[in-house]
Design brief:
The complex is a heterodimer of chains A (about 350) and B (about 325). Chain A has about 350 residues and is an alpha/beta fold. Helix content of chain A is about 40%, strand content about 20%. Chain A contains 13 helices and 13 strands. In chain A, helix 12 packs antiparallel against helix 13. The longest helix of chain B has about 55 residues. The chains are: A alpha/beta (about 350), B mainly alpha (about 325).
């Protein structure tokens, strides 16, 4: 017994310095949580010294916690506003990690493939188009038998990045939406029912003939729900897929602002699906702790290169090459007391 | 013997008094912690709700706009939804719950009582998200395809049963809440009825009362305040229920008379929007709603207590 105790004590005394793990805390968006936890898992094999603790409390919480420095990094589905950035104690960087897309899903007899033009989508959600056999829906869907049935609009009731992307798109394509409703993680919906979470919207759509709602691409694919093609800025009807989502970022790469705070909805490019968005990690440009800062910067580098290959399996769209190059430059700007933490390679 | 007994008692009383005093102190502290907890909640909510109160004042309670983008907030649809869905739930759950309790305590054969009582407690322990999912996938389609068309066809002249049948809405919320509240009302009511002394029943039966008359006059009347307590417990759960309600109520901040129409409740909007509320005023408005929920709960409880007091007379008479 005694020797066992001594051995244990010796171990306790010995082990901590040997495996001095750096614990990095993060909090924020729920939408990218599956890929983030996959990354943290895989990264533990790359660098066993670093451990991540991520709490998916929502983008709002992520912004709040990084701004009050209670976590080492934040995560958000929507970019921070100028005002929020000003309130942060020091300069925050937005690092895009992957892309997500939001899709229109519906419940019609036989679930035919549907295509929507932006103005039709906006007017349905504004309550101006109320029947499925409306001439304007039919115009983009020749050959589809559309029923004489009211459209039941279903939206998210919980504040979410998914909603933000959806209404950001509607705001861009419809001046009336922009002026009457606007964009945010929750909005004052002109029509429709609210379902809680992707599962709430999906459940309501599946159960109600004539329903039209929006969910994340990953959720729709996993649950084999019908998804609609949408006409993009180049005038082409594009189906939502991982490739067409990545194409949205590639299209926007040329005009990417330096801080990555860009909305990818209605992005240019022949192949681009128009309702897509980055999701971001939020980190301080000047890291308060050298050890943690270095580990974080290394992880960001890994995430934007090797990490991207895990995206496909989890139905996220990886960053396109030109954007990865831009992210590299951004990661090199992360410093500790003015010294860069990732050497220029 | 007595000579021995007196010092013995004297010796024992002193520490017992000390123990009593300690016990009293500890219990008083426990009670005080409860009071402090409530006070701390109120203070903290008032503090964080202050910006919204400043901006909107009393209009907050009577406005029905909820626009997080333009930051115009009003709580009326939420207050309405909470009160109506809870009342609807009680309307269904009270006869059912108290009826089941009467059966379990007074009429059921002895062998059936334990398994039934066990089942009731089992139902009370089902997590609310399960009820919510069941509501989405079973109850709502059932309401949409059968119940609502039927109600619309037969009672459609009432404004309560008009409008398109979505399945989800105020009616679905009321029914889900009723199902969740029934086991609570049943379990507590049963305990109350079992606590009624048998002499009550025997006295009534001896006077020639029938089974129903005995139950009504001797048992129910005796246990009335306990029964109201059981119903209040159910009401408390209905007012504060979040998950199951938000999954079936339709989440539309609108005051609509029809039970078919979607609605929204105070607890639901807080749960739905709290995590993504990024601006201070938005957050403040949500906490203001929390404060309002607190106030509504206090008012409803006070009203129910008044009700008990106003009907409390005959109970005393019987006890004397």
């Amino acid at each position: 017994m005694k020797t066992a105790w001594i051995a244990t004590l010796a171990l306790l005394a010995f082990v901590p310095p040997a495996s001095a793990q750096t614990l990095i805390n993060g909090a924020g968006a729920t939408f990218p949580y599956p890929i983030y936890s996959k990354w943290f898992d895989e990264y533990a094999k790359v660098d066993p010294e670093v451990r991540f603790n991520y709490q998916s409390i929502g983008s709002g919480g992520g912004i709040k916690q990084i701004s009050s420095r209670t976590v080492d990094f934040g995560a958000s589905d929507g970019p921070m506003t100028d005002e929020q950035l000003k309130q942060a104690p020091s300069e925050l960087l937005h690092i895009p990690t992957v892309l997500g897309a939001v899709v229109a899903t519906y419940n019609l007899p036989g679930n035919p493939k549907l295509s929507f033009t932006p103005d039709v989508l906006a007017d349905i959600f504004l309550g101006k188009i109320t029947k499925w056999n409306d001439a304007r829906i039919a115009a983009a869907n020749s050959g589809v038998q559309l029923p004489d049935q009211p459209i039941l609009v279903v939206h998210r009731s919980d504040g979410s990045g998914t909603t933000y992307i959806w209404v950001d798109y509607l705001s861009k394509v419809s001046p009336e939406w922009q002026q009457k409703v606007g964009k945010g993680t929750s909005v004052n919906w002109p029509v429709g029912l609210g379902g809680k979470g992707n599962e709430g919207v999906a459940g309501q759509v599946k159960n109600t003939p004539g329903a039209l709602g929006y969910v994340e691409l990953a959720y729709a694919v996993k649950n084999k729900m019908p998804v609609a093609a949408v006409k993009n800025a180049a005038g082409k009807f594009v189906e939502p897929t991982i490739a067409s989502t990545t194409a949205a970022a590639a299209g926007a790469a040329k005009s990417m602002p330096a801080d990555f705070r860009v909305s990818l909805t209605n992005a240019p490019g022949e192949e681009a699906y128009p309702i897509a968005s980055f999701t971001w990690l939020l980190v301080y440009k000047d890291q308060p702790n050298e050890l943690k800062g270095r580990a974080l910067a290394k992880f960001l580098w890994w995430m934007s290169h090797e990490g991207q290959k895990y995206a496909d399996d989890l139905l996220y769209a990886p960053l396109p090459q030109p954007v990865v190059k831009q992210v590299e430059a951004k990661i090199r700007q992360i410093t500790y007391q003015g010294k860069p933490l990732v050497a220029a390679r | 013997m007595s000579v021995v007994a007196i010092p013995h008692i004297a010796v024992r009383t002193a520490p017992r008094n000390l123990g009593d005093r300690i016990l009293r102190g500890v219990l008083r502290l426990a009670a005080l912690v409860l009071v402090l907890l409530v006070a701390a909640i109120v203070v903290e909510m008032l503090r964080t709700a202050l910006p919204a109160m400043h901006k909107f004042g009393w209009r907050f309670v009577v406005t029905s706009t909820w626009d997080p983008v333009a930051e115009r907030f009003g709580a009326l649809p939420f207050v309405y939804g909470t009160v109506v869905s809870s009342l609807l739930a009680l309307l269904i759950a009270v006869p059912l719950g108290v009826g089941a309790a009467i059966y379990l305590a007074e009429l059921a054969p002895a062998w059936i009582r334990p398994p039934l009582a066990f089942l009731v407690e089992l139902v009370a322990a089902v997590p609310s998200v399960i009820y919510g999912l069941w509501g989405i996938f079973v109850l709502a389609p059932l309401l949409r395809t059968w119940v609502q068309p039927f109600l619309g066809a037969t009672l459609g002249f009432l404004p309560l049963f008009q409008g398109p049948p979505y399945g989800v809405g105020m009616l679905a919320a009321g029914i889900i809440l009723a199902i969740m509240v029934v086991p609570f009302i049943t379990a507590v009511s049963r305990e109350v009825l079992l606590a009624v002394p048998n002499t009550q029943r025997e006295a009534a039966l001896a006077l020639g009362a029938t089974r129903w008359e005995t139950t009504r006059m001797a048992v129910l009347r005796y246990g009335r305040s306990g029964l109201v307590g059981a119903i209040l417990l159910g009401l408390g759960r209905a007012l504060g229920e979040t998950m199951a309600v938000t999954m079936v109520i339709g989440n539309r901040p609108e005051v609509a008379l029809s039970l078919f129409a979607p609605g929204y409740t105070m607890a639901s909007v807080i749960a739905n929007e709290f995590t993504e509320a990024t601006s201070d005023l938005y957050l403040s408005a949500l906490i203001d709603i929390g404060l309002l929920l607190f106030v509504v709960t206090v008012i409803v409880n006070a009203l129910a207590r008044l009700l008990v007091w106003s009907v409390g007379g005959p109970v005393k008479a019987i006890r004397e």
